[in-house]
Amino acid sequence: MKKGVAITGMGIVSAIGDSVEENLQALLTSKSGLGISKHIQTHHKNAIKIGEVGFTNTEIATQLQLSEDNNFTRTSLLGCLAAKEAIQNAGIKSISEYKTGLISATTVGGMDMTEKYWKQFASNPESQKYISSHHAGDSTEKIAASLGITDYVTTISTACSSAANAIMLGARLVKAGKLDRVVVGGTDALSKFTINGFKSLMILSETNCTPFDANRSGLNLGEAAAYLVLESDEVVAAQNKSVLAYVSGYGNANDAFHQTASSKTGEGAYLAMKKALEVAGLKSSEIDYVNAHGTATQNNDLSESIALQRIFKEKIPSFSSTKAFTGHTLAAAGAVEAVFSILALQKNSMFANLGFKTAMPETGLVPVTQLQKKELKHVLSNSFGFGGNCSTLLFSK
Amino acid sequence: MVVTRPYSLKQYLLNNKPNIQAWCSVQNGTIICNGKKIVSFEKERTFSEFAKQVYKDQQWEYPKFFKMDRLSKLTFLTAEILLNELTISSEEKENLAVVLSNKSASLDTDRKYQDSINSIENFYPSPAVFVYTLPNIGMGEVCIRHKIQGENAFFVFDDFNPLFLKQYAESLTQNNKARQVLCGWTEIDEKGYNSFLYLASPNGTLPHTEETIKKLYTPS
Amino acid sequence: MNALKQELKENIIEQLNLEEFTVEDIDNDDALFGDGLGLDSIDALELIVMLDKDYGIKLTDPEKSKEIFQSINVLAEYITEHRTK
Lengths: 397, 220, 85
Description:
The complex is a heterotrimer.
Chain A: E1 5-13, H1 20-28, H2 57-63, H3 74-89, E2 100-105, H4 111-117, H5 137-147, E3 152-156, H6 162-175, E4 181-188, H7 192-200, E5 224-231, H8 233-238, E6 245-254, H9 267-280, E7 289-291, H10 298-312, E8 318-320, H11 323-326, H12 333-347, E9 349-350, E10 372-373, E11 378-385, E12 389-396
Parallel strand pairs in A: 2-3, 2-4, 7-8, 7-11
Antiparallel strand pairs in A: 1-5, 1-6, 4-5, 6-12, 9-10, 11-12
Chain B: H1 9-15, E1 19-27, E2 30-33, E3 36-40, H2 47-58, H3 70-84, H4 90-94, E4 97-102, H5 107-118, H6 127-130, H7 137-146, E5 152-156, H8 162-174, E6 181-189, E7 192-201, H9 210-217
Parallel strand pairs in B: 4-5, 4-6
Antiparallel strand pairs in B: 1-2, 1-7, 2-3, 6-7
Chain C: H1 2-15, H2 41-55, H3 62-68, H4 72-82
């Protein structure tokens, strides 16, 4: 087995908490963050459950000490908050000391503000500041500026596997010696744009989602931001840093089946997991726990289950989806679940797949239904996106 | 176990360095593939008219093309022309990586979709439009058509970034993630459209350098 | 009924971008999904929106809706029975 790239810090803001510690407490007490929307005004408000971050935009702006005329979208605000925690957690005092990059994932960008001010853009000069903050790269640039990162800054946008791909790219750049350290992750705020889109695809659940259950009725959307700090062995040694865990493997493959639906054989998911195991030099039997993509749509959960059966054969490790805690946080999901996977390793805990009752008849697979303690060495995390984009990350002690 | 190689690891990596094997650019009704003008429409046409004409002339027989959004059509047609110029085995296609980029992500279709949820009286969000509100869907369409299952990534930059594409493609090939990489830029907005794809491959002959990529991207 | 069937064919061709089909190509008994017109799951969702928009029919289960989308004949009958506009 190869050691992988060191993770020295992490930060997160999600529906179950505004810090790593708060998220951990919710996971350990199996407390879901799903509910009726407070911040977002949609006429589907009472018909769906979502995973919203508690803070209002103004509250975050105050915490970040932004001036009143700032043009931060919610995506940027959430991103800055989580990235700052990650930097702090990694004990980084000086960014310029080492060659540092930022790879941030988003799909929705500044859509939250655009849809709010769309009709006023022409008439209301004050709202016009949000025109330039619409594009996908804006949140990345703002996070980079607030952290002082200038060496390497890029935005990745591959739907719901975006953040996993950001982590993969960061790990590679550190491994290749192109960067000494890199902040990797993603951020996506909720927007009516997304809610209505998923509604039109008829995959939004009216209740809290129940991943891998035979009677699952679709997903809950959520918003979140999460980042990891990856550092080279040289930096870790020079600064005598404590390492939270290692990114030991990663793989990405295209399902090449349909724009949005996963193939019946879970081909893309299977290939992504296979590649990740190869990179890590691990056998499938060495995986102790899987944080599944498990969105609770009919299509994903069946396809992913079949992919799990294909890669692990008869010996499928304990697995669960944490989507019923946070909702599906889209571009941020890969990073949110990376943080959860690292917490799982640190606490030797497997988190509950909330809401599960009945195994689906096609596979009979039963996830971890309540918090379970077990010595964990290697955790696999899946993130799959529209466009057939499938990613797997491996985290090891 | 000792494996004897006919060459050192370093040599192997050097051998693995890709060159540019083929390229294709699409802009203002003109398609240039490997330096050859394949399509050129004199008359001003909308992108959709242009795309339809190319589809017909090339006799693709892939009706799904007409369901795609404009960015996907642009990506698809550029890739289609490029890949049809080449002989790549289905096995090689399975491991082909795709790395694309642009400036506006899927803004062109985001706008169209936004219009459909803006009106209260006429509130009918279209699922068929929504599925294209991500920039990597066009890449997915190319993968579906050619059964490409290698690594996929889509990046957003302010401008065409040849250095990034070069480095990313090289890191994929040098780490044995892929032998060949389909790279490029595919951008469409209200003002116009342009795309440029190239295949980085050990079978290529043109040097895979920032200068060459830039030069091919901006044909004189 | 025949006028409705004609209208449905026109709308389906337009809404689902069936560029290579004309009204004459679609038989009233042709399967809309699978081999027939080759429609897929996203097309089914789009048809659900069309039923809501044009005929005031709200369908909530995409799986069940597939029964209604069997053919132009079945669809036209269902619309006639359930339309609110």
